[in-house]
Design a protein that fits this description.
The protein is mainly β. The chain is 13% helix and 43% strand. It has an 18-stranded antiparallel β-barrel. Strand 13 and strand 14 form a beta hairpin.
Length: 497
């Protein structure tokens, strides 16, 4: 197992290799935070060159390091980028100034949300940490608590009160109180150990990711990573900043084979300041009394014995790239992820992919940002390959939601978004999504979504948001004539104390 030995040696070295920024521990920036969009724009315009933004979440200290790097170019930034930098600096002010090394925020922020859907909506129910809104009125209130109890330990706690219960739970429509995310994090050397509940996102995609996204509920996991990218020794230094992330979790009991293991490994590299590469690997094994020993783990890691009598389980892998072109006239970012839902000859097979283009500003309209993204996991003459498995018939899901891309199996998805930063009135966002599922079924399910939203930041930590969306749903669940046109409205209030 030479490749396994090399990996062990590299990971052992991370304990002793220096990080690029300040050592220490901090809570993480949750997946879905506005901070990632801000960092994406600063990177797209060439102001951040050492970040590995396709592996989320980042720690707050890593976010502060990237903001400090961007600040070196503040004198040549556009007014829009300067204002964005100011907001992100304010968000990370304690970490940037390295004050309050030990702190406790019982209520760091609070968020209240109201949403109304006329029927079984689609627009608000994906990439939403596994929460499905019910028809009619929906209310939620959540708070965030965090702290750094010493230089090496931090915690994050995000409970929510919600009414009614999840739309998929028909047994009750009462109030539910749950912990959306909550974890403790311990740093030792140049490594960080996280234990608790947290969402992950692997890949440069904005609208979805093939292997790991926040479409399903956050995992109760154990995760280890080097939170600040580092340079590997010797010739490996030419690979640029390097980051390693691995996690392990057990899925739920209410499935065909109860409580299977799900493990993942991701390597991020940046061989050039404008080009990054990510390698991801996920395996599901065990569960329902299936044998699990060291050999099972090694076979799953190395993709051995796939489609044989001793098959360890379900395996997925992907590689993604991101290229930043920070031209003064028109900067843009191209990104792509290519993955396999099966294995042949120890290589991914049954290919799916995501490709996208991001323009942080447009010639003649610097307040306007555009993004287009296309995803496809249709495998010709192989219906329903992605996110399904002959052993794990429940599929690549956690608590009813797909762990990877929300579009599902044998599907294509086209997404477009335009964001207008209008200054004092706030930001206006329009998006359109066209999704087709079951491409090789006799009846294809189709969904079209148009969404318009408004976000306004005020001084002293207050943010207001509101929006409207309409779905045109055709042949839901591949049932001919099962059509709906649900409408949704929502309003939200966020306050950072």
């Amino acid at each position: 197992m030479p490749c396994l030995r090399v990996l062990i040696i590299v990971l052992a070295g991370l304990f002793f290799l220096p990080a690029q920024g300040k050592a220490g521990n901090s809570a993480h920036v949750p997946v879905g935070s506005w901070v990632y969009c801000a960092l994406d724009r600063l990177e797209a315009e060439g102001h951040i060159k050492s970040g590995l933004l396709s592996n989320m979440p980042l720690t707050r200290l890593e976010g502060a390091r990237l903001v400090t790097e961007a600040s070196e170019n503040e004198s040549i930034m556009s007014p829009q980028s300067k204002e964005l930098l100011r907001r992100v600096k304010d968000h990370f002010k304690n970490e940037i100034e390295y004050r309050d090394i030990y702190y406790l925020n019982p209520v760091e922020s609070a968020k209240a949300m109201y949403a109304y859907t006329s029927d079984s909506a689609h627009a608000l129910n994906y990439n939403n940490r596994g929460k499905d809104l019910s028809s009619g009125s929906n209310y939620s209130l959540s708070i965030v608590s965090s702290g750094r109890l010493n230089r090496n330990f931090s915690f994050f706690f995000n409970p929510q009160v919600r009414y009614p219960e999840d739309a998929r739970d028909t047994a009750t429509d009462g109030t539910v109180i749950e912990v959306l995310e909550g974890y403790g994090s311990l740093t030792f050397g140049n490594m960080e150990l996280t234990v608790g509940r947290e969402s992950l996102w692997w890949g440069p995609g904005y609208h979805g990711a093939l292997l790991i996204s926040n479409n399903a509920k956050p995992f109760d996991l154990i995760k280890i990573t080097n939170p600040e990218p580092t340079l590997l020794p010797w010739l490996f230094s030419y690979l640029g900043p390097f980051k390693f992330t691995a996690f392990a979790t057990r899925l739920e009991s209410q499935r065909d084979l109860r409580k299977p293991y799900l493990t993942g490994l991701r390597l991020d590299l940046k061989p050039h300041p404008l080009f990054s590469v990510g390698l991801s690997r996920v395996a599901m094994f065990g569960g329902g009394g299936r044998k699990v020993d060291f050999g099972t783990v090694v076979d799953a890691f190395l993709a051995r014995n796939e489609n044989s009598a001793s098959e360890p389980g379900n395996q997925l892998a992907s590689v993604d790239v991101k290229l930043v072109i920070p031209w003064d006239l028109q900067p843009f970012v191209f990104y792509s992820e290519i993955g396999g839902e099966d294995e042949a000859g120890m290589l991914p097979s049954h290919i799916g992919y995501i490709a996208g283009v991001y323009l942080p500003r447009v010639i003649g309209a610097k307040q306007l940002a555009l993004r287009g993204e296309y995803a496809d996991n249709h495998v010709k003459n192989k219906p329903g390959v992605w996110y399904t498995h002959h052993i794990y018939s429940t599929g690549y899901k956690y608590k009813g939601e797909i762990i990877g891309h929300h579009m599902g199996s044998d599907a294509r998805d086209i997404f477009f978004e335009a964001t207008l930063n209008a200054g004092r009135p706030g930001s206006f966002i329009f998006s359109f999504d066209s999704e087709t599922t079951g491409l090789q079924n006799n009846v294809k399910a189709k969904n079209r979504t148009a969404l318009f939203s408004w976000v306004k930041e005020f001084e002293r930590g207050l943010k207001l948001s509101a929006g409207y969306a309409v779905d045109w749903r055709k042949n839901i669940d591949s049932i001919e004539g099962n059509n709906l046109t649900p409408h949704s409205i929502w309003a939200g209030l966020d306050y950072n104390f």
